[in-house]
Amino acid sequence: MTSRDSAIRTFQVWDYAVFACLFVVSSAIGVFFAVKGRKQVSSKEFLVGGRQMTFGPVALSLTASFMSAVTVLGAPSEVYRFGASFILFGIAYSFVVIFTAQLFVPVFYRSGITSTYEYLELRFCKVVRVAATLIYIVQTILYTGVVVFAPALALNQVTGFDLWGSIYATGIVCTFYCTLGGLKAVVWSDAFQMVVMLVGFMTVLVQGSWSTGGVNNVWHTSQAGQRLEVFDFDPSPLRRHTFWTITVGGTFTWLGIYGVNQSTIQRCISCKSETHARLALYFNLLGLLVILLCSVFSGLIMYTFYAACDPWTAQYIKAPDQLMPYFVMEILGEYPGLPGLFVACAFSGTLSTVAASINALATVTYEDLVSQCCGNISNQAATLISKGLCKRMRSAHFSPPGFAPQAALSIHGMCGGPMLGLFSLGILFPCANSKGAAGGLILGIALSFWVGIGAFLYPASSNSTHPLGLSTEGCFLANATFNATVATPIELTEFVSHRLVEADSWYSISYLYYSAVGFLGTLVAGLVITCLTGKSLLHYISTSLKKPLRCLNRFRTCALVEIY
After folding, report:
1. Residue 14: what are its φ and ψ, rounded to 5°?
2. Is residue 486 classed as helix, strand or coil in its secondary structure?
3. Which of 184-193, 230-239, 322-331, 477-486 has the lowest mean pLDDT?
4. What is the pLDDT of residue 537?
5. Does an H or E element contain 274, and which?
6. If we measure between CA atoms, which residue out of 556, 425, 557 comes closest to residue 120?
7. Higher pLDDT among residues 150 and 123, named by residue
8. Which of 168, 336, 399, 439 is most enclosed, with most CB atoms within 10 A?
9. CA–CA distance, 63 with 287 (Å, rounded to integer)
10. Which region among 175-189, 347-361, 397-411 has the lowest average model confidence (pLDDT)?
């Protein structure tokens, strides 16, 4: 490409109008369900939709909730910098959905619970339940902070879109329709926002392909830039993205998100039958794959467009997360309303994720903390408390720690891995006792946070991350001494004084393995402690759990003790 102007292109009136429509429609959905269900005041109706949802809207809601603005903005920049191996997440998604639908959903659905952590008290003890609830609250606050702040900051710095205005608007609108309409409003709003995400992506793909000379040119340019080298079978766990880290590590990471996460399970148990819950997951898989393909192709188109002039290296933008909005403003800036459509696409992901988080946090806070402390609560009081918690949860999301898909998935891995191990211990190993569960959870959390925080303090070197080359040959650079073809910025900022020995081994492990580390630590420690302190017999477990456990006979592999 030819030299580029680094000036910021700002939003126009039509862009703000299109963007505002997203908030208006989402709010209207909340009002609709508030009016429709004004006579149904039970907390179960508010939190799990009366368990009458069908699989269609739930499937769209599941996809929208976890394909956030971090995915819309961050995944294309991942492909731009590291290549199309990101598409291998499709394999991980497939394994995750199968395991969730066949292993975890039957247990939670048949148990008749509202909070997934209620299972832990029925299976182990209240201490384990409360500990898991607190971990989930921390995980969700951190993750939602990234989802809200990172895209807003990227859009602000590239388009001039108001930073704190968009953040507060997101929180207020989500709180509004969550509080008024409960889970039904969240699910149907997510379904609408999923459609907006797809329309926004398709607009970028069509205009981007036209701007870069067509699909064939995108393919050849990406191939010449090594962006199509997808399959790397290097078994080293230190490599950031390989076939094994994405398929194996990605499966563990996303299974922690889908299999035992309150936000996911709450939608599944809101379905009218277990069959609908499973269908929702399988149709959600189609949505995940579609969004993944859109993200990968957007990244390849963006690389082709900037093959000769990388705006990040040329310092037109300050961070990789700004690549996608910068690209959108270049190709759509002259068309009134279309940049606003893309921002609506990005914020649809944000709205759906924040709404899901608010609703899930309100559920676990009420079910696992408030109701346990306050004893018998009337249905009307329970509903008012649930709505009040939705309002209060809005303020918990505005202190974000970082950026991009790696930050989001690292948070899920560090917290979700031990939780996955804990639930697996209870479901797959009926011999496991409460002491083993508590000890395993402590060790799993310690291991995953050790490696995660260490990696944050001592980032992996380029030998592990393998960033691909970027060029500035076609750029007009203010600094004439800057090389035409340079190393990627990630290599220029990685030198850290007093680097520990662990920094190039334990701390350099792929972020996708954080979940596996926590999972294995929790599972192994839980079984060892159980073996040392005495088994838990099936007839000691609550009757409500025996049927769910019995459906998992083919999965049981407990060889430590005899199962009675």
Report:
1. -65, -30
2. strand
3. 477-486
4. 54
5. helix 274-305
6. 425
7. 123
8. 439
9. 6
10. 397-411
d(CA 182, CA 175): 10
β partners of residue 485: 471
On whether the CB atoms of residues 506 and 517 are closer than 8 A, the answer is: no
Does residue 319 sit in helix, strand or coil? coil
- Condensed to tens digits (0 to 9), the pLDDT of residues 130-154 reads 899 889 888 888 887 777 776 677 6
Whole-number mean pLDDT of the chain? 76
Place of tokens 């199509």: 228
Q: What are phi and psi of 485, to 5 degrees?
A: -120, 120
Rounded CA-CA distance 267/479 in Å is 54
Q: In 3-state terms, what secondary structure has residue 494?
A: coil
The 3-state DSSP class for residue 241 equals: coil
| 536 within 8 A of 433, measured Cβ to Cβ | yes
CA–CA separation, 343 and 173 (whole Å): 16
Instruction: Decide if 227 contacts 495 (C-beta within 8 A).
Output: no
pTM for this model (two decimals): 0.81
Is residue 294 predicted with pLDDT exceeding 60?
yes
From CA 169, how far away is CA 302, in angstroms rounded? 29
Strand partners, 470: 486
Contact 505, 463 (CB under 8 A): no
Place of tokens 């159980």: 530
